[in-house]
Amino acid sequence: MKEPNQYDDPLKSPVIQEILMCNRIGGISLELSRRLGISPIKALELFYESRTAADLHDKSTGLYLYGDLYVADEFMIEKGMM
Fold first, then answer.
1. Could you tell me where the DSSP H helices lie in the chain?
2. Which residues does 74 contact at the CB level (< 8 Å), separation at least 6?
3. Please, what is the Cα angle at 17 between 56 and 36, to 5 degrees?
4. Burial class (CB in 10 A: 0-12, 13-18, 19+), 52
5. What is the mean pLDDT of the chain?
6. Are 77 and 66 contacting, i.e. CB atoms less than 8 angstroms apart?
7. What is the four-CA torsion angle of 11, 14, 18, 24, rounded to 10 degrees?
8. What is the end-to-end Cα distance of the chain in Å, rounded?
C-alpha cells in the first residue's frame, strides 16, 4: 500500500509552487512596466528590490492570496506612486 505524502497533489510540489510564483511575478512586472512606461526588465528589478516583493514571498503576510493587479497597486503605494 502506498504511503501518502504531501506531494501527491502535484500543485503542492515546491517546484510547481516556484513555477507559479515566477509566472505571477512576470505578470506583475509586465503590469508595472505598462504603468510606469519602463522596460519589463527594469520593472522586474524594481519589484524585486521592494518590500512588496518580500511580502509576496512571505506566506505569513497573505499577499500571495491576492491578484496580480492588487500586488501591483501595493507596489505603487509603497513607492508613493498612487
1. 14-36, 40-48, 51-57, 68-78
2. 52, 55, 63, 66
3. 40
4. buried
5. 91
6. no
7. 40
8. 56
pTM of the model: 0.82
Give the chain's radius of gyration (CA, Å). 15
Per-residue tens of pLDDT for the chain, all 82 residues: 455 556 678 778 888 888 989 999 999 999 999 999 999 999 999 999 999 999 999 999 999 999 999 999 999 999 999 8
- Cβ-Cβ contacts under 8 Å for 34 (sequence gap 6 or more): none
Please give the grid coordinates belonging to residue 5.
505524502
Using a 10 angstrom Cβ sphere, with 0-12 exposed, 13-18 middle and 19 or more buried, the burial of residue 24 is middle
